[in-house]
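Fresh eyes needed here. I'd like your take on this protein's tokenised backbone:
***
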Amino acid sequence: MTLLELLHLLRERLALVVALPVVFGLIAAIVCWGFMPNQYTAEVSIYALAHLESSSQSGDYVTSSDLSASQMLANDFAELAKNEQVQSQTADVLGLENLNDYEIQITSSTTTRVIKVAVTSEDPDSAALVANELVAQLSDAAIRVMEVEAVNVVSDAKAPTSPSGPNRPMYAMVAVLAGLFLAIALVVLEDMLNTTVRSDQEVQELLGLPVIGRYPLEKGGRR
């Protein structure tokens, strides 16, 4: 099937090609804006000073080895944040059963030694409380089990005033594209399953004989 043939088929079934994306988009919009709650992310910025940094650091500049150490520390902090004991202690201090309802993410920049701890929740105040307490527990664990001299908090987490997610427009757009792809697939499948002869060219291909004339049908189906 050529592109022109596909465009011709889509034009013939234009109603389906338009209706499915619209329906999918409307369903996604209803679900996203009607049933998906807002998510709020609170962030804490910390600076972890390792033993290697204190002995080799000269001046106030940042070396490539410092940045590599920062990334490794971020990975270590991410593993510690998943530790059952650290999460349990954080939940106990805050009077929570567990931290299953909170999404925890730890990242470090490629140009600084600052590590960011982000906690996402449906409640902005809870997200900030969990982020601050989690950093406190992570600091104790890092000093105890890692070669870290101190973990300094650059900025405490504040309750966010605007949601960080979900990305509703993106979900709606994905649904519209999914509806469009489904409509195209249905049109192509219907054409493939249609075995009727619809053109002179198909007659010649099937029978191997030239078409020497046509006999049109009159209006109403009478010959």
About this structure: DSSP finds eight helices and four strands in the chain. Residues 69 and 113 are 8 Å apart (CA to CA). The beta strands are 40-50, 103-108, 114-121, 148-155. The longest helix spans residues 168-193.
